[in-house]
Design goal:
Layout: H1 27-33, H2 39-53, H3 57-65, H4 68-75, H5 81-94, H6 98-107, H7 110-115, H8 123-136, H9 140-148, H10 152-157, H11 164-177, H12 181-189, H13 193-199, H14 205-218, H15 222-230, H16 233-242, H17 250-260, H18 264-272, H19 275-285, H20 289-302, H21 306-314, H22 317-324, H23 330-343, H24 347-364, H25 370-384, H26 388-391, H27 393-402, H28 409-420, H29 423-430, E1 432-433, E2 444-445, H30 458-462, E3 472-474, H31 500-505, H32 511-516, H33 571-584, H34 590-604, H35 620-630, E4 634-636, H36 645-659, E5 664-667, E6 673-679, E7 692-696, E8 705-707, H37 711-717
Length: about 725
């Protein structure tokens, strides 16, 4: 046998590079590796950068400065799924940084990210693509791009993903997107309601919370509320309220239900299923201030609709609101007072709330919280508007204001606001009506009453036998057929007091009268089951600034509660207003209008009287004859043909208010009363001078304007 010869090892091919294991010590090296043509190198570099960026914002800024994002952007469309996945992960983790988001917007990455939401993509890709979009959707221009590039549909589809992180990121992104009205309408068309309702059954609180917050935003639209009802969404919401284990979601659930209360159709659905009773029962036993406050706010918003007010009244919502006034939380008291103000648009609610609510609201005027006192004042004002029965709160406030210890600026403001909504009582008690106190139909002057004396309603006065006391002068420039005396008439605060048809058939109503008529105005958290895996021109008198009304408007009808007594219409007064409007309104300046109106009023009430012969001007006899003729102590002002100071001053104020001429009415002693107006003096150099106050002569020299404080003005006001 021959000797065996050892076989030589084959030499490796010359064109093959032996694998080189590199240990990178700096992120800059990993960024350089993003330019490698090798998929394995790219995948490992992206993985290393993901871990580095996860450690904090400083590392994200470091990668930003090294230009990593530009390289990563190119890898979003890489053919290798692992490289693409790892690149998306880096984008998702870095997008929380403000500067990174700015560059991402410049790179216009939204389209590439949306393409990663395709069903065939890996669940990790879905997670970090939706995470990046959620971070970027905070900014408006990105919202627009996501909408325009078709991102809504895949995001809604991913609400049904088996991965909780994908669900969380997708619903968070949608929540941010639907802040824009255009996106709200779009997601509604894409049937977002069913998957959102499905998320309410999630075991992860953060997902449930985001779903509720999204529902709260989109349910602001009526169309969405209808779809919510059709999908039994209201049952979902009520079930959450009934589950004590979900108490951390009750506030957000109430916010959604609060929107539903604003729609009559949806509210009727809730009512038919007994949902309102369930809701109120839940609210009555809840002691969480946030829940109580949000519930009251929801009622406030809903109560601006007349039909909804009726439904809420039928469900006795007033009991709940009155109970809230007893809480120890000031924010709840404010919200409850505001809800009471809104419910006052319903006459029956106003009656229920007035009985118990007025004493409670008066007590709130002693609160140390300014907002509480302000809300209480507004509620008191609304409760007493056009409601003589509720106006008896006035006695309590008068007693408070007579006490040096109990009186405060809010008790004084409350009394003033209540009186401003009951001008007959204000003039009777205070003897003064300002230029902003517009006299409307139903006003009556029964003379000055003393403190502690009951202020009688018009109906009560009408039942009194004829007496030799001074007549009650009544204002009613509205035909009989337009007088509405319905006990339960529901008046919406968002509409004017009379319909256009009524206004057309009644006497002239100026634009000023229409304006100034009485006025009623996320981050991840723990889970329940498991943790998430990740002029020039002519000078004119100054006009007062427009006052913002804080109380709901009420109809300018004669409000005689629970009564069949109809006050007589004053056709003569109607003619006066029409005639004065035709002849006086066309005059150029306010001064000319005031003078002309003074002469007009004097002419209708017996003409000028010589001051020396004033004692011979017998006006009492004629008024007594009118009372005898009407068999009533109430005398329409138009019937008075011989009027003295207080008759003329009242008629001047009534007509001036309807013509937009600002004037006040002041009661003096011994049948004296006068009007005060503010006019601007002519300036030789064209300078704007402050307005001067004048007393208008209606008796001796009708039309004479006497400067306030002069001997002549003082003589006119006194005997």
């Amino acid at each position: 046998m021959g000797k065996k010869v050892k076989k030589e090892a084959e030499s490796p091919p010359k064109d093959v590079f032996d694998p080189l294991l590199i240990e990178s010590k700096t992120p800059a090296t990993a960024v350089l590796m993003l330019s490698s043509p090798e998929n394995e190198v790219l995948a490992k570099a992206c993985d290393a950068l993901y871990k580095f960026a996860s450690k904090g914002d400083e590392n994200k800024l470091t990668l930003l400065d090294l230009g990593a994002l530009e390289h990563l952007y190119k890898l979003l469309s890489h053919e290798d799924p692992i490289v693409r996945r790892n690149a998306v992960m880096v984008f998702g983790i870095m997008a929380s940084n403000h500067d990174v988001k700015k560059l991402l917007r410049e790179l216009d990455v939204t389209n590439s990210l949306i393409s990663q939401l395709a069903p065939e993509e890996d669940v990790v890709v879905h997670e970090f693509a939706t995470l990046c979009l959620a971070h970027m959707a905070v900014e408006y221009t990105t919202k627009v791009k996501i909408f325009e590039q078709g991102g809504l549909e895949p995001l809604i589809r991913l609400l049904g993903s088996p991965d909780p992180d994908v669900k969380k990121n997708s619903v968070e992104c949608l929540y941010l997107l639907v802040q824009d009205f255009q996106n709200r309408a779009a997601v509604r068309e894409l049937n977002v309601i069913p998957p959102l309702l499905g998320l309410l059954e999630s075991e992860y609180p953060v997902i449930q919370l985001l779903a509720l917050q999204t529902l709260e935003v989109i349910s602001k639209d009526r169309e969405t509320r209808i779809i919510l009802g059709e999908n039994k969404g209201l049952d979902f919401l009520l079930n959450i309220l009934e589950n004590n284990e979900l108490s951390d979601l009750h506030i957000e659930t109430l916010a959604v239900l609060g929107n539903c209360l604003e729609d009559v159709h949806t509210l009727q659905l809730i009512q038919l299923t007994g949902g309102i009773k369930k809701l109120l029962s839940f609210l009555e036993i809840s002691t969480v201030p946030g829940i109580q406050k949000n519930a009251a706010k929801a009622i406030t918003k809903a109560a601006y609709d007349a039909e909804i007010r009726k439904i809420l009244h039928w469900e006795e919502v007033e009991k709940f609101l009155l109970n809230l006034l007893e809480t120890n939380n000031d924010e709840v008291k404010v919200a409850a007072s505001q809800a009471i103000s809104a419910m006052c648009g319903n006459i029956d609610s106003k009656s229920v709330l007035g009985l118990q609510g007025i004493p409670q609201l008066v007590q709130l005027l002693s609160s140390n919280n300014e907002e509480v006192k302000e809300a209480a004042v507004t509620a008191l004002s609304n409760l007493t508007t056009a409601s003589p029965r509720n106006a008896s709160a006035l006695d309590i406030l008068e007693e408070i204001n007579l006490s040096t210890k109990r009186k405060n600026k809010f008790s004084e403001a409350a009394l003033e606001k209540l009186l401003d909504n009951n001008l007959s009582q204000k003039y009777s008690r205070m003897g003064y009506l300002s230029s902003s106190n517009i006299i409307t139909n139903g006003f009556y002057d029964c003379g000055q009453i003393k403190h502690g004396e009951k202020f009688l309603s018009l109906e009560e006065l009408s039942k009194q036998e004829l007496t030799d006391r001074r007549a009650i002068i009544f204002i009613n420039a509205k035909p009989q057929e337009n007088v509405v005396v319905e006990k339960a008439q529901d008046v919406s605060p968002s509409h004017s007091r009379t319909s256009s048809r009524e206004k057309a058939s009644s006497s002239v109503i100026s634009p000023i009268e229409e304006k100034q008529e009485l006025s009623g105005h996320i981050s991840k958290s723990s889970t329940r089951g498991k943790g998430l895996r990740k002029g020039k021109g002519e000078k004119e008198e100054e006009k007062p600034k427009e006052v913002i009304n804080i109380t709901p408007e009420v109809q300018e009808e004669i409000n005689v509660e629970n009564s069949h007594w109809l006050p007589p219409p004053d056709f003569i007064l109607m003619d006066y207003i029409n005639d004065a409007s035709k002849t006086i309104l066309p005059l150029t300046t306010t001064r000319e209008q005031v003078v002309a109106l003074a002469q007009f009023v004097a002419d209708k009430m017996g003409g000028p009287v010589e001051i020396e012969k004033l004692h011979n001007f017998s006006w009492e006899l004629q008024i007594s004859e009118i009372e005898f003729e009407l068999k009533c102590n109430i005398v329409p002002i138009g019937k008075i043909k011989r009027g003295t100071f207080y008759h003329r001053a009242l008629l001047f104020k009534v007509i001036a208010d309807r013509m937009g001429i600002n004037c006040s009415l002041v009661r003096g002693k011994y049948n004296r009363a006068w009007n005060e107006v503010k006019l601007v003096e002519d300036s030789p150099k064209g300078l704007l001078l402050p307005p001067q106050e004048y007393v208008v002569d209606l008796m001796f020299e009708p039309g004479c304007l006497m400067k306030q404080g002069t001997a002549k003005a003082d003589q006119y006001k006194c005997i």
